[in-house]
Amino acid sequence: MDCQKRLRESKILIIGLNGLGAEVVKNLALSGVKSITIMDETPVSIADTSAQFFVSSSEPGEGRAKASKAAIQELNPNVEIKIDSEHISSKPTSFFSQFTAVFATDCPLSVLIRINKMCHENKVHFYCGDTWGFYGYCFLDLLKHTYAKVVPKGSKKESEEAVIDVLDYCPLGPALGVKIGAGLNRKINKVYILLNIMNNFREMHNHYPAPENRESELQLLKSVRTFTIQNLGCEDNKVSDEMLSSVFGELSPVCAAVGGVMANEIIKGISRKGEPIHNFLLFDGVTCTGVVETIVVRD
């Protein structure tokens, strides 16, 4: 099937419409997918207006998804924008079978793992990501993914040919459950460790660190850091106090960078054209760098 045809026939589910989710939706709507279904009943707050450009301060209390629909539709009237007001926890496994790809953000790790599992069972591509201050990540589970890539042909640099390649992915849970020395490189990027810290923080406290309670939340973060480093088996503290102090709130430039990559990966996954990330992208906004880490756990 033609790459553009695959894209035009694709149905995307977006779970979470924070700043990162808005960037992903914007790029997907402009790319010309068939439909985008959005789930996020979180009431719009003043904090949302710092990075979620589809909402305004005049819409406090309304669900993010509903408040954003009109603005998203204006981007591309040819893309069907649907709002699903049910909570993701109420959805059965069969619900995900209708979609080509699912992207989730602003969710606890336990919810991400559950969604990933149901996508896996339906052979649906799963993507997730988040940003915290200057840092962020993308994760992909494309199952067993076949794609076309362009490589040099023979020794002639000016000549190229398309070849078919295959990548094996694993779900998020196993990819985050690896310990140093048991499959995880001791030189693992510090943002991977931060990702685990932030996931643990949210699971323990039911929210990401709140800017309005910066001092008390920072102390909790340090405690979670100690727990996380011990759990991963890290010998040194790669995540400094300074790094922890830079994880509060959403920053538009970071959302734009991570969201742009995430949307591009979804498009590549659907079109099967171009080599996708395998399987983490870890973004450091302080140094403006992104690192791909491959952490795949085999059955």
UniProtKB/TrEMBL annotation:
SUPFAM superfamilies (UniProt xref): Activating enzymes of the ubiquitin-like proteins
Pfam families listed in its UniProt record: ThiF
TM helices/strands, residue ranges: none
MF-aspect GO terms: SUMO activating enzyme activity
An individual GO BP term: protein sumoylation
Domain THIF-type NAD/FAD binding fold: 3-289
Alphabetized PANTHER family for the sequence: SUMO-ACTIVATING ENZYME SUBUNIT 1, UBIQUITIN-ACTIVATING ENZYME E1
Family designation: Belongs to the ubiquitin-activating E1 family.
Protein name: SUMO-activating enzyme subunit 1 like protein
Organism: Argiope bruennichi
